[in-house]
Amino acid sequence: HILAAVGLIGLALFPQMMEDSYSGLMAAIILYAVGGGLLEVLVSPIVEACPTERKAAAMSLLHSFYCWGHMGVVILSTAFFYLFGIDQWQVLAVIWAAVPLANALYFFLVPIRTLAEEEEGLSIRRLSGKMVFWILMVLMICAGASEQAVSQWASAFAESGLHVSKSVGDLAGPCAFAFFMGVSRVVSAKYSDRISLERIMLGSGGLCVVSYLLIALSPWPVLSLAGCALCGFAVGALWPSTFSLAMKKIPGGGTAMFALFALAGDIGCAGGPLVVGRISGVFGDDLRIGILAALVFPVILTVGVLASGRSKGGARNKTVSSGC
């Protein structure tokens, strides 16, 4: 939390303090990225360690708050820029730093249980020897890529397709995407005890494929934008469900497992938008073609879910040969 707060404050201060403004900006970004990354790695095992019966529901509900936070940032930042002008962005960065600072103080009062009280989690070496671990790593990469390939380009897609301002594009694109993603995670939490994780993920993967095709092939921009919102609903369950599936397939995976899966997800979050941007650039900045190319991610994810269903977790899980 402190690293995230320092990074956000640094966005306003570091470029002014350093001779090279860009280096100052990058230093701030690295700080809050490290802070946010650590939070992502640590919060999931903390929730998993809570004495609740419906672990998958708790995990899905936890990740829904990422969506509500995303919406809050988009809406409140848009309102701030509308009232005070975008040239006051440094002030906004400092204001947002209050959130991680408040959380840092609040966490001093929160009792935290460890994930495994009597035994340590699996080492990275033992995790890497499990075939199902690598399947789940691929699922995390594809979950992150499927989500961000659309989310990161939703605003630009809305602006170019509907010919609206950036403010309207942010609300119609990323904000709608985040809203339906949050709804998906709440719905997934509600029905997690009635529908298996594999079925939830297969349904989400299939719906994601449909939404990608709708975005890329619809002749009407409004319908393509509706496809972006549908994509938000489709991908919502993928990330938390993969975490829950990992806890089911690899019991006792520990914090190292969550860290590696978060890393894989972040690789996907970076790779998905990159693929869309590069392919779109080759075809005259046509985002539809870029989105169509990124269809490979939900397709691979769906195949991976089927493969994970054939892999047994725990001690009976097959291992891959290792040089160690």
From TrEMBL:
Pfam family name, one: MFS_1
InterPro entries reported in the protein's UniProt record: MFS (IPR011701), MFS_trans_sf (IPR036259), MFS_Transporter (IPR051788)
Compartments, record wording: Cell membrane
Membrane association type: Multi-pass membrane protein
Keyword Transport among record annotations: yes
Gene Ontology cellular-component terms listed: plasma membrane
Keyword Cytoplasm on entry: no
GO molecular function: transmembrane transporter activity
Similarity remark: Belongs to the major facilitator superfamily.
Protein name: MFS transporter
Organism: Hungatella hathewayi DSM 13479
